[in-house]
Amino acid sequence: MEHINVGLVGITGYAGMELCRLLSMHPSMRLTMACSRAEAGKRLGNFYPFLEGLPGADIVISQFSTEEAASKCDLVFLAVPAGTAMKMVPALLRADLKVVDFSADFRLNHRPVFEEWYGLPHEAESLLPEAVYGLPELYAGQIAGARLVANPGCYPSSVILGLYAALQEHIIRTDNIIIDSKSGATGAGRKAAVPSLFCEVSDSFRAYGLPRHRHTPEIEQELGKIAGEAMTVQFSPHLLPMNRGILSTMYTYLRDPAPTPEEIHEVFRETWKKSPWIRVLPLGKLPETRYVRGTMFCDIGIVPDLRTKRLIVISVIDNLCRGAAGQAMANANLMYGLPVDTGLHEVAPLF
Ligand SMILES: NC(=O)c1ccc[n+]([C@@H]2O[C@H](COP(=O)([O-])OP(=O)(O)OC[C@H]3O[C@@H](n4cnc5c(N)ncnc54)[C@H](OP(=O)(O)O)[C@@H]3O)[C@@H](O)[C@H]2O)c1
User: Fold this and answer.
1) Does 155-319 carry CATH code 3.90.1170.10?
2) What average pLDDT does range 240-246 have in this prediction?
3) Which of 101, 199, 283, 326 pairs with 130 at a CA distance of 20 to 30 A?
């Protein structure tokens, strides 16, 4: 196959915008269909001036139809809200296309859990068993053979990568975990909403969605698989007055007898030594969102506190790249047998 032809539904959203940026630099994926209801009929380069002169600029934005997708695409990225993707996926799969879905529609394994937390009936329950959770470091083999990948949520990506080593190696207890996460404002999407206005976000800081943010069951499901037991966590998201980035601070209890800080650090280093996107910082160093901006990196800092018997883990990711579009592209790479990092060699611009 010379090129992998891809479609993107939700081209005008923040996650879609980030995928447009990444696709324009991918050596073997070519954008052939770009969909939005509100902007249909416009030339993509006019809508996104940053694309001018680059691949994809001359595409005319269209209203989504399975027929167009079937005639122009091998794979479709769905960067649309929860509840929308499930209406599109069955027909796309019947048309023999592969799908990477950014929404939560296929992330939760059990329909009642989805319906309880999202307040929507699930319209494609029969596809839940075959959807693969798209975290490349954990599930690369299954992703490679999948036709439907459920791209993880942004907060869950930061949390699962941050806690994986400690849970897998049984360093921490599985109870009483508190996850305190902060996100930049693009995490809420581009739709017009008063809480996202500049004056509501700028120069202030607030928690939201407590104690039942929708990412809670996804975090519990995936951490539970790593730990090998059902888990309940306290998840508290916050909105930061910046555009992009997530920082999650996770407070856990060390198991008795606690390893030394150096031993804990070694476990983290050893766990991730073959995963170039996961950077475990030296003891005493803490991660910052600016060093992962626009990239696939997840930087992890660990703070063993033997006085309080806690292990504090701090992880940072970019919500739009690692937390959405970049991870989706990494999954698509795997689905076509390409190296997972094809087109994803970004280094963070600091300013
Ligand atoms: N933002 C993040 O950091 C982030 C991170 C991880 C995952 N996600 C997930 O990625 C998806 C997109 O998020 P986003 O932040 O980019 O949202 P967004 O900025 O609000 O954009 C949503 C996109 O979906 C389209 N859309 C909305 N309703 C639609 C419908 N009924 N049918 C077809 N298209 C529809 C919109 O375009 P039109 O209205 O013009 O059709 C728009 O292009 C969501 O499921 C979100 O949970 C986002």
Assistant:
1) no
2) 97
3) 326
